[in-house]
Model the fold of this input.
Amino acid sequence: MSDAPGHSFAADLGGTKLAAALADADGRVVAELNEPTDPRGAMKVAEQLVASAATLARQAGIDVSGVRQAMVGVPGAVDPASGRISLIPNIAGLDDFDLLGFLRDRFGPRVAIENDVNLAMLGEQALGCARHCRNAAFLSLGTGTGLGLLLDGRLFHGARGAAGEIADLPIGRDPTAGMPAAMGTFELEVGSLAIMDRYRRHGGRDASTVREVFRLVEQRDPVATAVLDETARWVAVAVATLQSLLDLELIVFGGSIGVRPELYERVRQELPVLFSRPIAIAPSELGDRAGLVGAAWAAAHAVGQKAGSP
Amino acid sequence: MTRQLSRRSVFEALLHRSPISRADLAKVTGLSKQTMSEVVDTFEQQGLVRRVGRTSGNVGRTAVLYELSPEGGHVLGIDLGARRLTVALAEIGGRVLAEADEPTDGRGGAWVLDQIARLSDRLARDNHTHPSRIRSIVLATPGVVNPKTGSIEMAPNISGLDHLNVVGLLGEKLGHPVVFENDINLALLGEIWHGCAQNLANVAFLALGSGVGLGLYVNGELVRGENGAAGEIGYLPIGGDPLQAESRVQGCLEYQLGAAGIVRRFGEAGGSPVDSAKQVFELAQSGDARAIAVVGETARLAALAAATVVATVDPQLLVLGGSIGARPDFADQVARALVQLAPRPVEIRTSLLGARAGVVGAVSVALRRLHDEFFGVAELASALPLPPPAQRHAPQ
Done:
């Protein structure tokens, strides 16, 4: 019948970059593209998603009308009841836009949207370093911070879809000491802006991006090294916090900063000092494709689609 | 299979809608009148249901009303606390028949096990229940059960349980296997069944007393973690210096926030000598400035722990429980401190059941296990929902 699974559309929508793919019935990626996110806001981004599906179908030599499952990862919290997106600073107007409804008009009812870090967690569970894990987390560290949680084998969203919004973990400089409550304490210590701020406070002059700070660390620059040590320390405190709360089997490190071995190894060395039981951490195996791989897998298998499913 | 499903759905209807007529049972379950009659007859023969009267209808014939019979089976819930032992007896329909409690035998070990057996036996006999009628027993304990040895570990406040096969010995003494579960998890389930968190699916329970602990209930299930250590928040590396020796041994947060930490901080602040955290709270209420400051700092530490929970698991409700957490004067302070720490507001309630939360939770799990033993269907993963505390519904 025409209800056979067929191909699925998967996307990982970021503030600056869109990654999209077509997946076969097993959830394996058969065509893939990367392009800059349309800067003109939510409506244009939604149209860009639909156009990318058509492009991918042409690449794969299939009819786009046969694509009737879709999963789109977004950099925000997705309300499990309404599919509304919030906490999404990067794409203008997306929190007021019915992305789910728009996509269902094009692809039919089997469309879902999901937090991007949750999809990265699913990707690592399906095809990456968290295979066979039932209790795990994907810790994303980059411009922002996020956490995808797998509890008892399933993605966990929380009461309002805001589980894992760890930017607000009260970890860092005393969060009650006169800092605006609206700013995420943890992100203020380990986000890329925080790292640059720390670098300047330590008197650093030679780097203007996090990438350059890491390069200076390789060159044994003392200021850059001190900055990274301090950053790793706060990340380790967050990891110990997660372990204390949830007793996880594995915590996967991802995101542009999280995958850096210089950071990751420092965190690994800090952990035994902070926590008496061993904590298993591993760098993301799928890297910046984890979210897309997870989206493809989820679309084909209709998993993790509680958020925003009919 | 079909028969088991029919029996299960009739039992569920009786559980939630007793007293009820056969006609209404058929309506509620969607089963045919004939199937219904067969099931109800079987239940009557087994002593699971009994007749409780007739409908007083305005028109037409009256109908016989049925309810679950207490003869169908009894369960025991036991809460083994460091200071107090509580036992509750309930019948299969969910009614708690009686409770008894006494101070936990300070000698620990085998004396405590004897005490549990004695108190349980007395409670059953006082309520004319022969011990053989008890079909399911659940015990709430601090610490964790070692599955290999049956001993209870990480429960330093009750001595002598870490080198006894507590599971095996207690099962022998009570004449029925005993299921052990963490006390904070059961207190949380107690609040969900009969307390302040009824009908909620995502709830966090923050227990503050001699120790600190967290119970997490998400999507209608307890979170236990990979090794059963989820919620061991005494070891949260916040609220103090995680590198301090005491933090490593006792847990960074617990060293500050546990009852001993409150007493210690009060002493460090130059407060008058006190024996217990309770006295610090009482001094704060009577206006002692140092005590007020220490209680305020305690609320801030509790709010820090709560904020990590809110950011990580996004619960609908946060319940404050335990001998310190359930103090009404304390919850307000925690709520005020949390506003500064958590970007999303979360509702906070104080435990409604207080010291009874653990034993009520133990009864709820014992009931679910009994129902599952009678009416479990392998294809249906979840246990039957339990009736709410006020379980009398008018017949439809």
